[in-house]
Specification:
single chain; alpha/beta; Maf protein; six-stranded mixed sheet; 7 helices; 6 strands
Length: 206
Amino acid sequence: MRFVFASNNTHKLSEVREIMPEGIEILSLHDIGFDQEIEETGLTLSENSKIKAETVAEWLIKNDKSTLTDGVFADDTGLEIDALLGAPGVYTARWAERETGIHLPEMETYAANRQKALRELEGKTNRGAQFKTVITLLYLNSDTRVQVEGIVRGTITTEERGQSGFGYDPIFIPEGYDKTFGELPTEIKNNISHRAKALTELVKCL
């Protein structure tokens, strides 16, 4: 089977390819020649996941490229911090940018987001949080669509730890571990992460 993963995030693409089982080929947006920016206007992770999948599916059909793939899936992921009433949630990827109005390169954006999270939690004893991933899959040869989710609970550290992963990984410790996603080996993270859980549910539906 062959599916397009509707994301321009190279870190996510690499993670998805490592997690998906043999026999399922994952095409990137670059592979199919899609180079548009997808405007994420949804108010929830579910809505944004659906928007991204629908946008790419419609583009494939419009450009007579639907034979390249069996379907399109997209994820939207949010960090939900208990003490901040679930923030940043749907604004996870550009949390710091929404505050400053300054658009930064990818790695600087990740760093700014982490530092904002640590600042917002200064002096707070409740550091509980969860990562949530919602995936929407659309088949191109039918009206079938699937939406699944994966959640991993954990805590936010008081300082950054580890160099692996991306995004908020260096400040998030998953339940049952004493290391952040940024410190854990990739093979462990890819077995227990929110995205891994969502992809596991997705594979069950294929």
